[in-house]
Design a protein that fits this description.
Chains A, B, C, D: Keywords: Metal-binding, Oxidoreductase, Zinc. The structure is a homotetramer. The first copy, chain A, contains eleven helices and 17 strands. The first copy, chain A, is of the alpha/beta class. The first copy, chain A, folds into two domains: 203 residues, Quinone Oxidoreductase, Chain A, domain 1 (Alpha-Beta Complex), CATH 3.90.180; 137 residues, Rossmann fold (3-Layer(aba) Sandwich). In chain A, the strands form three sheets. In chain A, strands 3, 5, 6, 7, 8, 16 and 17 form a seven-stranded mixed beta sheet that branches. A six-stranded parallel beta sheet of chain A has the order 11-10-9-12-13-15, with helices on both faces. In chain A, helix 6 packs parallel to helix 7. The model of chain A has no long low-confidence stretch (mean pLDDT 97). Chains in contact: A-B, A-C, A-D, B-C, B-D, C-D. At the A-D interface, strand 13, strand 14 and strand 15 of A face strand 13, strand 14 and strand 15 of D. Strand 14 of chain A pairs antiparallel with strand 14 of chain D.
């Protein structure tokens, strides 16, 4: 089969590979739609270390090709979503309430990390009964593929923020994760949502997803702007959806004592992420800092798919581009340069 | 001043009373808009025991007439909302996170319970800095009066239900509290909202506030209907917004193991509220039962007012009737009979 | 192999059975020590319905006889504890944080319920890597067998009670689960522990495990006694460790507004468990009611075994009797009559 | 009256001051016993900025001299403890569950910060009914004075750590706060407590309060030692009780994915407290970071006093020195140099 791989650090291309094999609890799916993630680009540039001919991609929906002998709830032909994160549910970390950390830090993240990813004709799914979900009839593949990572991760950013009903939240960066954190904040009852972003089409989409105000950091220090908007009180919660220490520091600074900083950005560089000591109340201001990795699993997928079925959210507004699988390298290129106002490129496996 | 009182059990009428006095931390307000609550009717019929010439009412907004000497953040002329529940914030119950229970069970509920209520020309507010909130300019008095009880109580019903994002919730009864629980469920990220109600205009309003499906108990056992809708799996959470043991039992029955029953109904009758033993998993099915009394306090009011300012909710759809203060007895009459499809009667103090 | 079975309702005896078979992720163990549980007696009398020749027992430790091909962390000869509850960790209930409810209400409870129990020469363990734990060298088999149910269940009763550090808790009944709830309350930081019990050797053991005061219900209404001890304020938390509606009602009555009722008793009889309406604050006093079924799983077992290793608790004080497997019917007889001051009978499989 | 003050940066001494005045809800107490805190020394050196003739001290018990007219539960002659933190309970931060942050970051901390402290003949207490607690007869003044800060702060460190029952915790530094965090970990059910400390008498006391193992950082990198002790798995929770970025970083490093870092150290220096990016799982390893400031208030004091009454903890083991008020400067000197194996110096106001 054809697979789009990271040949080595910085190099991508198609490669002929064997169809994956599976164990008794697993499944093989044929992808229909996929999305390219900025973290795929990070991976190519070495964020998870060197890899050789590793298939890329982790956001995909498709049709079941075959299932192992102990799989009970899925069969060939079923239309399914597979989480970007596919935990080992029996691991002690999962038993402890942290399935995304199963077996090791970020251990639930397998695709294009510790095993081949999803940009291939066939994709392996571990523990199919636990890590797949049927896509409801009224939900399109394009909609559904957003639950695998963007909605799950962005909403997690909002859930971890412990936003009180009617509370005020600032969301730093409105890429696809930030946009879904903005929508997630609406779904958690936020009363005031301040989105920090400078790119016009992202600002506009942020408003569509529920942002009440936009802070453009090109107009001045976002900390000053947010403190000004909140009568110097700060926000109940700040969400970091970019992955830079500078932005994280701003989150700590704009959060009121007793508030929460929720990190869902991938911090790819530097030895440290810095907490500003004074604004952190010298370690005593009760500003909790929470982090998370995209929640996976059948139940999570089912619940997010249900939000699509009920038309509570339309993630397809983020699809700015569409490519057949053969042209996926162009999608990678755009995600790297962020040219052409790209937000999310949809990959069509059937054309 | 004129006050609308419960003269004795079952008897209401207007009475001339002295203007209330206040302590150093208190305030006096002149109401502009109020709402009659079904619990006012319960009170008249003896739900809190006998009372003599007790002024009725607990849902009101108005203008500050005067403030005590230690009040810092409010002054005469300010347009304010006052919570139906006005806790003693220094009490140990409040220190323990339960301000509505300050000093005794339901002790934060003072109006028309342990002191004169709000259907009078002047109303006393204890601890003004902690129990009042300024009404934002863009929010009308009619909108604002809904935060004092209906929004706070109904939303609490949804908050206590611990609805997972995308989860399924059943809400029993769509009176004003149930309707706000329905809207609250949307604001907590519910993916599927099943409202149980039989009155047509309430069913319609339930859909407007976010119910995806309506279960009419005149069409058959609501438990069977809900189990049918959910493939016999049950719901993640059930909200009791009526206050009857029978409805509470149904809540326990339709909730899946590990789910939550959130009670916000006022149980006015009977020695017991019954938990069905078997469907409760013989005491081991991890179905939590939570209760609450309308959260009060300045912060709560501010956050709910913010939701109005941001147009996240329009509670005025529930205003089916409007009366000047002089005709409030007609509002009480309708709330008792539920005639004329009444949901909430607005009382206008200025006409 | 020999197995001690429930032949039919009310009848027990030994039976020759085939050695259990196992799947690729499972294990077979040879028990060394076991404990008889009052719930075994309930089962014999029909609490979970009719059964035919079902092997009894669910509290056991032993040595691994064989493991399936995908088991990674255990091998023949290992000394292990197996939880009374052995969840399916991939189930949606487990993904939702409720492994004991996997697949159905109480679905994690398999032994002597939906499959053969542990009073046999060989015992089947599903998902061995997730449901077994190695017993540390310094911990004896007799100590270890208490983690499988008594410590896990009793401690859960205390954990669910949300006892504030220094708080006051009342624990109703001091059978083995109640005694471990008492010890659990100490380990959750309770400042005052009131144990309700009438049997002298249980009262004494309650004190040894940390009870500060004993309320003997033969000395008068326990509600009155507890309210008297607490200046009519009530307790922060009440734990029901008996499984009777009457006791449950007392728990609701003695709990202060804003407090918690934690149920860990098995309610075996009656259509309803009753909540006293008035003392429940007419459904608004914020008295949460929580339930649970013994938490299982490798991590839970490991952590409880660690408490034994660190000498934080000595559960063997509860061993009042000891029998070889051949005489287990005598243990069942005593657990039914509670004669001879029995608390827990230890079963020795090797003699 | 005589007061021990910080005359200016770096200078302390006695000064004659007027007896404090009080408002209607306040009280004046005459201290009997006090403790000097390392943070007093920080204050003298400028940690909270410049001050002129500010009375020092915030840990004290005493006898009520007089109460304001609205105080209900206390009267002259009562023996009372007063929290180091005396929140404004009506503030929005307190309503939000963060009384220690009332009105501003760390705003509940008033003594020797925004008003005169406790090392004087008379001490002012704001909101006496909410911020004082009666000392039980069986509890000595010396015992009781530890609840005002050391027990409340140290226990908070353990409570915020979310230690699972039987879980593993590492506590960095065994000064008085760290020692009480160690004891607090026992009271939260920790199964394994690793204390990091190098001073012999503190190591010894750590063991007495419940540490199972001591890691001496003079024996090598504590991160390596702790990872070695835990089979490279790390701990469920790490508590920072020193207030240095280096120690904080070690806490992040030794905490397993999904674990908690609880900070109760006062970070007095540097622009940043650093989070090590990689060991923090690039912002996705679900290692929560929590902070807190000593919880105050009557309920907290009552519950901690109850633990003394029940002999659950003996804090007086930390009293290594005792001085009459006149010689308090010697206590300050020793707390600065940590000479003579000092842990806590008790101040006796009556001699």
């Amino acid at each position: 089969m054809q697979a789009f791989v990271m040949e080595e650090l910085g190099e991508v291309g198609f490669l002929e590979k064997d169809k994956p094999e599976m164990g008794p609890a697993d499944a093989i799916i044929r992808p229909t739609k996929g999305l390219v993630c900025t973290s795929d680009v990070h991976t190519v540039h070495g964020a998870v270390g060197e890899r050789e001919n590793l298939t890329l991609g982790h956001e995909v929906v498709g049709v079941i090709e075959s299932v192992g002998e102990t799989v009970e709830d899925f069969e060939p032909g079923d239309r399914v979503a597979v989480g970007a994160i596919t935990p080992d549910w029996g691991s002690t970390a999962a038993q402890d309430g942290h399935p995304s950390q199963s077996n090791q830090a970020l251990g639930g993240w397998k695709y294009a990390n510790v095993k081949d990813g999803t940009f291939a004709e066939y994709v392996h799914v571990n523990d199919a009964d636990a890590n797949l979900a049927h896509i409801p009839e009224s939900v399109s593949d394009e909609e559904a593929v957003y639950v695998t990572d963007m909605m799950s991760t962005g909403f997690m950013g909002a859930e971890n923020a412990d936003i009180p009903i009617g509370g005020t939240v600032a969301i730093f960066a409105q890429g696809p994760v930030g946009l879904m954190a903005t929508k997630g904040a609406v779904l958690q009852g936020a009363g005031r949502i301040i989105a920090v972003e400078t790119v016009p089409n992202r600002q506009e989409l942020a408003r569509e997803y529920g942002a009440d105000e936009i802070v453009d950091f090109e107009d001045g220090d976002p900390v000053e702007q947010i403190m000004g908007l909140t009568d110097d009180e700060g926000v109940d919660a700040a969400i970091e959806a970019l992955g830079r220490s500078e932005t994280f520091e701003q989150c700590v600074k704009v959060t009121k004592p007793g508030g929460t900083i929720s990190n869902c950005g991938y911090h790819g560089e530097g030895e440290y992420v810095n907490i500003p000591r004074e604004e952190w109340g010298v370690g005593m201001a009760e500003k909790d800092i929470k982090t998370g990795l995209c929640p996976g699993g059948r139940l999570r997928l089912q619940r997010l798919l249900r939000l699509l079925e009920a038309d509570r959210v339309d993630p397809t507004k983020m699809t700015t581009h569409e490519f057949p699988l053969e042209e996926i390298d162009e999608a990678f290129h755009l995600m790297e340069t962020k040219e052409d106002d790209i937000i999310k490129p949809l990959i069509d496996f059937d054309n």
